[in-house]
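B., you asked whether I could sanity-check this one before it goes into the benchmark set. Here's the sequence:
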Amino acid sequence: MRAIISMGLVLGGLTLATFFGGVVQDAAPRERVVLDKALLRADDGDTLDIRWKEGQESVRILGIDTPEVLHPDHDIPFAQPFGDVAAGFMRGALAVAKKVELVRSGQKDPFGRTLGYIMLDDQNYSVLVLEAQLAVESVSRYGDNGMPVEAAACVAAAKAAGPVPFEDPHTYRQRMRKVAADMKAKGLYPQLPKAK
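And here's what the prediction gave me:
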């Protein structure tokens, strides 16, 4: 039994199967994966979708929490101030980067999204958006996800940047869930298009 467990740990350490939407991407945690910019779509300032030929991978970028964009399907019936600005920052940063890489942590969030850092021309995107005061650091709330160097850089960047001009997105999401529940109870919540 010990031999089987040991073998499983050895093999598990060599390769990590990352599952998303029924698609498997094999990559060791912390390995940098070069991304084709044509396959990328910025959902907001801290979420990126990659359209692999096998299917889509959604990446929740570590170290940051940016203001929310309109997401009725996630109980965010109103965009948060600066949400569209943060999303625009992401799109612009991706557009001008010559090289885009994903560094996976080897973990998933509760929604099944890959947790990792995005590197743009060898610069940590999370640090860039924190320096622009378009994100709060999320390391203090969620930990370093096994990536202490990158996480420490985020904490330092947030401290150097100073206060942000918007409500903490975590607090905003909690408030919007209450607003969405009230709107739904009164029949006022926007109807979402039905999936085909």
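One thing to flag: The radius of gyration is 18 Å. Otherwise nothing jumped out at me.
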